Automatic annotation (TrEMBL):
Protein name (database record): Ninjurin-2
Gene Ontology CC annotations of this record: membrane
Coiled coil: none
Family: Belongs to the ninjurin family.
Region entry Disordered, spans: 1-21
Subcellular location: Membrane
GO terms of biological process kind: cell adhesion; tissue regeneration
Pfam family, one: Ninjurin
Phylogenetic lineage: Eukaryota, Metazoa, Ecdysozoa, Arthropoda, Hexapoda
Membrane topology: Multi-pass membrane protein
Length: 135
């Protein structure tokens, strides 16, 4: 509490521009976050293209593989989940860097991490039950 010359007591908050309740994010940190998000997006795009290629090869096998429908379901689920993770990465970038909303950013980040884990597990099953090669 600060008393001014007129006898009024001021709280110390208000129009004082010297103090900001939210600290500014350094420009280098914003650049780092944007580069990190871009790298995650590129890695997601690479995995997505690999799954689309697996889907193409599976559909070309025309139901001759022993685990055809199981693989088809796993690859489709993985592709859908990868698209959702990609959107989560973009939304996380939007809320964290541009809006500075750490609560929403934290929730989206947690959901994105769970999505990446599920994509990894699905791709392990896809690889395990992959197409048999004829020798």
């Amino acid at each position: 509490m600060v008393a001014d010359g007129g006898g009024e007591i001021q709280s110390g908050f208000g129009d004082d521009d010297r103090m900001s309740p939210v600290p500014e994010v350094p420009p280098k940190l914003v650049t780092y976050q944007l580069n990190k998000i871009s790298a995650l997006g590129i890695a997601d795009l690479g995995l997505l293209s690999a799954n689309v290629n697996q889907l193409h090869n599976l559909l070309d096998s025309s139901n001759t593989q022993p685990y055809y429908y199981f693989n088809l379901t796993l690859i489709a689920a993985s592709i859908i989940l990868q698209i959702a993770v990609g959107l989560g990465i973009v939304m996380n970038n939007f809320y964290k860097v541009l809006k500075k909303d750490t609560y929403k950013s934290g929730i989206i980040n947690d959901m994105t991490v769970v999505g990446v884990f599920l994509v990894t597990v699905l791709n392990l099953f896809i690889t395990s039950f992959g197409m048999a090669t004829s020798l």
